[in-house]
Amino acid sequence: MSVAKVAEISSSSTKSFEDAIAQGLKRFSRTVEGVQEAWVHEQKVKVSGGNIDEYRVSMKVTFIVKD
Length: 67
What we know:
Layout lengths: L2 E11 L3 H15 L3 E14 L2 E15 L2
Antiparallel strand pairs: 1-3, 2-3
């Protein structure tokens, strides 16, 4: 039997939402093994002078707990 946990993380990128997701998962996976999936539940942008400065995402990441 497997047991899974869910962690909520936030990440950002100056490039795109996709890059913010990829960078967040890459960083999270460096310290947590067994990452299975992620659910992006919020997307935001930081705006300055009418231009997007930063893309931000909040996501819930599911990972398997080791025995």
